[in-house]
Amino acid sequence: MSAEKLYALNICSLREDLWALLDTADLPGRIPAGKAVLIKPNLVEALEPPITTPVILIHWLVEYLENRVPQTNIIIGEGTGSLEYNTHHPFQMLGYTKLCAEKKIPLLDLNTEDLTRKEDPDCKRWPVMHLPSILDEVFLLSVPVLKVHTLAKVTLTMKNMMGCAPPSHFRGNGGWGKSAFHERMQESIFDLNRYRTPDFTLLDASVGMAEAHLWGNHCDPPVNKLAVSADPVAIDSYGASLLGCNWRDIGHIKMADTLLGNAETVVQRLSAI
Predict the structure, then answer these.
(1) pLDDT tier at 175 (50, 70, 90 boundaries)?
(2) What are phi and psi of 225, to 5 degrees?
(3) d(C-alpha 62, C-alpha 171), whole Å
(4) pTM score, two decimals?
(5) Which domains are present in the chain?
(6) Fewest CB within 10 A of the end CB: N or C in the chain?
(7) What sign results for the dihedral spanned by CA atoms 141, 143, 148, 150?
(8) Cα–Cα distance, 176 to 182 (Å, whole number)
């Protein structure tokens, strides 16, 4: 498959650096005319950043889209893994409800959206997959945060797609809304992305979680980077390297390499604005 570029920079001024990255990657030119953009943050639970995607980053992303592609409809959507509350709780607690009210844009709980049944016999873990139908209609812009994960090793853009998996089909026997993914985790993430992978990723590596995705030490010093790419495998390989991991040791990235993207993509480093 043809190689997509990956762009990264050290953060000096969040708005200016973000906009420069997105301009350099030509995000406006990638969005098909007439397609809505669904921004997919990581709001796995109602916990403050850097565990979750900071709303200020989404604020500047929304303003960028409003400025550069003003005719495009913007949506924010996520599906929390908690069984104690629905996704509108982290939306409210983390500032997303307020942002969407101010910007007059829809806020979707992907856990409760209408679903489409998909089949792929090449997927050994998930030969049948149920996903929100809206994913077939939008340009999917994933905004994960940089985190180690105790089962998946890292949680970046491909694992961020688990927020799209409905608990009605993937709760399994566990006490978490997507517990079925915990069995054969690496294959589970890989197969999920064979059905739907992000069209573009903005990786928030401003801080980084060094031990686990819900607890533990932050990266010290903070990583202080943003990275963007239309290649989910490249962005995950790069994110893994920021966490001191080799992508070849991470099953879902290794399986996806050359099929869903290119792990060896060269990083284009921009100077901070």
Answers:
(1) confident
(2) -130, 155
(3) 32
(4) 0.96
(5) 6-269 (3.40.50.11440)
(6) N
(7) negative
(8) 10
Report the candidate in 8, 30, 29 with the shortest Cα–Cα distance to residue 17.
Answer: 8
Q: CB under 8 Å to 188, separation ≥6 — which residues? A: 125, 126, 180, 181, 182
| Residue whose entry in the numeric block shows the structure tokens 């924010």 | 76
Q: 132: Cβ–Cβ under 8 A, 6 or more apart, which residues? A: 77, 110, 113, 114, 115, 116, 164, 166
- Pair 146, 219: CB distance under 8 Å: yes
Report phi then psi at 231, rounded to 5. -105, 110
Number of neighbours of residue 24 by Cβ within 10 angstroms:
14
CB atoms within 10 A of CB 48: 9
What is residue 20's three-state secondary structure? helix
Strand 6-10 to 225-229 pairing: antiparallel
**Contact present, 111 and 166 (Cβ < 8 Å):** yes
Task: Give the pair of three-digit tokens for residue 199.
Answer: 């069209």
- What pLDDT is stored for residue 273 in this prediction? 39
Nearest to 78 by CA among 145, 6, 24, 10: 145
With tokens 């943003």, the residue in question is 226
User: 202: burial class by Cβ within 10 Å (0-12, 13-18, 19+)?
Assistant: buried
Q: Which residues pair with residue 131 across a beta bridge?
A: 116
